[in-house]
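Sample pair:
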Amino acid sequence: MRELSRILLELKKLEPTIHNLFDGLKPKHYDQLVEATKSVANYDTVNDTFDSPTFAMNISTALKQCCDIAIHMVIKNEPSVETASLKTMINLLQSNWRFDVCGRAGNDLNLIKFNKATIVPLATDLRLLKNYLLLKAGEAVNRLARNAADANAYNTLLETVYFRVILLNRKRPGELQRMFLRTYESSEIKSGEYEEFEEVITEVEKLLIKNLKRVVIRVVSEQKGKKTELPVAVNKKKRILTPWPSEQKEAVTFFFNKNIKMKKSPKRKDCEEIKSLYPELLANKDSLKIKTTNKENAGKGTTKFTDRRRKTVVQLLYL
């Protein structure tokens, strides 16, 4: 409505006989409508550019919707000349608007997107943010110690804690907002639970696992009317790990050598086949564990961290 109001104000300046938007939606005022749009979008006649190309491209849709509404209002009373006039206006917007306005505005919009600089926060920036959050959180704690009913201090403490938790995990803020405090507090950093991955992950990833607390929460996503639930890692059943002797690793690596080179996970029938070849050697392994181990072997060497990236990650850990 604000955009249409700005167009109407410019139309009144260009054509004093126009008193409302209905008067402006006539084919004879099409040129004035184009000029009004260029004026509102700050069109530069010298450089042939728009300062607000998005407005110039989107306003045509709103104008066509206004024409449809006007046709509906006119038809309810009685079909008349106004109906044909409004339909002609819609045809003009559909056929000529892209040449008069949208073509130049689209080029300007693409140029702005292409030249837009991407600002990436550095580790020093994140350090400043964390120090600021710690300062505000400390002040809020002191205020709550003096007055436990201080709502502003409580909200400040709540927001600072939320931002600190989400600092390195910005993809799912909605799920974090709905997570209970007891769920976060009950999760523990369990060392030695993922021994099978020690040979696969890099030194930087080991440092991340050691220093960061990992909490996976329930996620319900809707897609085509279906709901999918991911397991809650905090309350999941602890996995029983069975060590892999060197003989088992050598047999699996030799059998799936082609899969490892192609970095493909084996199928279930392949895992059952190797179990039939080595029934005694792989008696304590099921097909899922064999498939997982082969996938880990296939991923060896695929994750590469340069010294610069490793330094940045380490700086993030010690903010």
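The chain has 15 helices and four strands.
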